[in-house]
Predict the 3D structure of the following.
Amino acid sequence: MALTKKIFTVGITGASGAIYGVRLVNELLNEGHQVHLLLTGSAWQVLHFELDADTSNEEKCIHEVFGEHKNLIYHTQQDFSAPIASGSSKNEGMIIIPCSMGTLAKIANGISSNLLERTADVMFKERRKIIVVPRETPLHSTHLENMKKISDQGGIIVPAMPGFYHQPKTMDDLINFVVGKVLDQLDVDHSLFDRWGETT
């Protein structure tokens, strides 16, 4: 049975945990899906500090971090002519991974000053799937209130909280668990972790 290609948008913000976003993008591309990629200004800094990426040239950095994929489409933050800025463009889901508390606050309150925030606003108004992966600790009440606002609007909150029942042995195991939980919400098949009760 042939794979039905889906279209997703992945936003990476300046929260710690850029590897979650990179791993998710790679999994979606490897499964043959199309990915519209968005990175905030702070996300570039995190790519540099956490993944030792050379961010002096954005286009070159995208190719080095994510590889050469015909289904990967990168948009700058002020490119409001991008198709994902409009509800008329087909899009099966948006994932913001990791999501900073600043970006979370803006999308929770309908503020769209860049393409990532605008695309999130489109997803809400079109009643499409939007998944937010917050990466912050501890959380104060405003963080929690903003997460509730997103949930109340139909968004899905998937905190970067890895499980341990699958007995992770490496950091990759922990990363894969979180990314796998996101893929589950997108109804994208994967084998990133052993499921509870399954025998291997």
